[in-house]
């Protein structure tokens, strides 16, 4: 493979897609006007998920239960921890994604509506060994949500009905086995 193509391939693979200047400008304009609402919605959704019995962990620094909450307050406003919520469930992540009707399962996070992403190390890349995945500490049941500007009562109702479809049986995805913890 020619050197230039190899460099381009490695950059795109390792650092995601390259954005053009206009795309970046428009994204920043939209986030500037909606970040506060997204942060409020993310905190409300994180609080709901934290108390759900089928949710094994919630990673959102706005929650007082998050181990880095006090550290996150210093660089961030106390009421603005961003619009990304990560959580793990006691079943297959595909169960919740298949049951969602309002949230979209997309590969980008810049939408006005709530977007759910399954981040599963074994299925998102074939260039990381099982040992590297385990050493990274990334949970195999992790789901990322880029919270949008939707009405939060609708989003919480959406996740409530989707979590009812989550099974608790062990599952395998590719060559990785699900394990809690």
UniProtKB/TrEMBL annotation:
The keyword Transferase applies. Its cofactor is pyridoxal 5'-phosphate. GO terms for molecular function: cysteine synthase activity; O-acetylhomoserine aminocarboxypropyltransferase activity; pyridoxal phosphate binding. InterPro entries: Cys/Met-Metab_PyrdxlP-dep_enz, OAc-hSer/O-AcSer_sulfhydrylase, PyrdxlP-dep_Trfase, PyrdxlP-dep_Trfase_small. It comes from the Eukaryota. GO terms for biological process: cysteine biosynthetic process from serine; L-homocysteine biosynthetic process; transsulfuration. One of its GO terms (cellular component) is cytoplasm. The keyword Glycosyltransferase does not apply. Keywords: Pyridoxal phosphate, Transferase. Belongs to the trans-sulfuration enzymes family. PANTHER family: HOMOCYSTEINE/CYSTEINE SYNTHASE, HOMOCYSTEINE_CYSTEINE SYNTHASE. This is O-acetylhomoserine/O-acetylserine sulfhydrylase.
């Amino acid at each position: 493979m020619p050197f230039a193509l190899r460099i381009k391939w490695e950059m795109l693979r390792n650092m995601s897609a390259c954005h053009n200047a206009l795309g970046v400008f428009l994204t920043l304009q939209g986030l500037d006007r909606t970040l506060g609402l997204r942060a409020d919605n993310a905190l409300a959704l994180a609080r709901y998920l934290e108390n759900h019995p089928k949710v094994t962990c919630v990673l959102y620094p706005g929650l007082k239960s998050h181990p880095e909450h006090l550290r996150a307050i210093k660089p961030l406003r106390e009421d603005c921890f961003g619009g990304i919520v990560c959580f793990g469930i006691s079943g297959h992540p595909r169960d919740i994604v298949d049951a969602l009707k309002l949230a979209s399962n997309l590969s980008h996070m810049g939408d006005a509506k709530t977007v759910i992403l399954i981040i599963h190390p074994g299925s998102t890349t074939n260039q990381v060994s099982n040992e590297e995945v385990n050493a990274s500490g990334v949970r195999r049941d992790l789901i990322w949500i880029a919270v949008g500007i939707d009405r939060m009562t609708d989003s919480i109702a959406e996740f409530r009905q989707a979590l009812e479809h989550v099974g608790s049986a062990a599952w395998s995805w590719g060559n990785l086995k699900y394990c809690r913890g």
